[in-house]
Amino acid sequence: MTATQRRGLGTKLIQEGLAYESGGTDELAFRPSGVCCEIDVPLPEAR
Amino acid sequence: MISDETTERLAHLRLIVVEDSFPVADGLKYLLQAVGCHVVGMAGSVRTALDLVTTVPFDLALLDIDLHGEHVAPVAEAVRRRGKPVIFLSGYGDEEVLPPDLRALPRLEKPVDPDELLIVIERALGATPGG
After folding, report:
1. Domain segments of chain B: what residues?
2. What part of B 52-111 touches A (C-beta under 8 Å)?
3. CB within 8 A of B61, min separation 6: which ones?
4. Which pTM was predicted?
5. Which residue has the higher pLDDT, B131 or B83?
6. In a domain, A3, yes or no
């Protein structure tokens, strides 16, 4: 599949909201075989 | 309704938004940008908020009182040390107690009414810094 230019609420929550609220990081990739999203979130105890 | 005079005063105002919920913070940013304000920083924790208010130039700070269980008071103190006004935001039904020296500062209940927010911002700009 290919990435479109259009970005909705879901993308915003993943790309901005996740880092904002959890301090984590994520990578969203649109690949020919499908969408791949890798998310790293620190556990509260480990901060 | 908001007067033209208020709109003029709010245009180009540099604001910091400290709010632990991303959708709420983003909604505030959208609202403030719509009236010409610049949201120069957003933070969802005491640590990131302290980084912001000590490094980024701003004119006023909107501070949610409870940040995922952390009290925003240290951030409010840092904002006041820079001589800038603070407006507190508090969640409905939250038992959010402010230290005595911060109780006189303006406080809005969430969900925030847009017109009320802009009026309170304008009033805070007119008040003595830190008062």
Report:
1. 4-125
2. none
3. B15, B16, B17, B18, B53, B75, B76, B79, B84, B85, B86, B87
4. 0.87
5. B83
6. no
Rounded Cα distance, B108 and B103, in Å: 12
Which CATH class for the B4-125 domain?
alpha beta
Is there a domain that residue A4 lies in?
Answer: no
* Residue A2 in domain: no
A12 — contact with chain B (CB < 8 Å)? Answer: yes
pLDDT in tens, B10-38: 888 999 999 999 999 999 999 999 999 99
Q: Which domain holds residue A33?
A: 9-46
User: What's the ipTM?
Assistant: 0.76
Whether residue B17 lies within 8 A of chain A, CB to CB, comes out as: no
SS3 B128: coil
Token pair for B29: 């940013």
- In this prediction, residue B1 carries a pLDDT of 62
Tell me if the bond preceding B111 is cis, omega within 30° of 0: yes
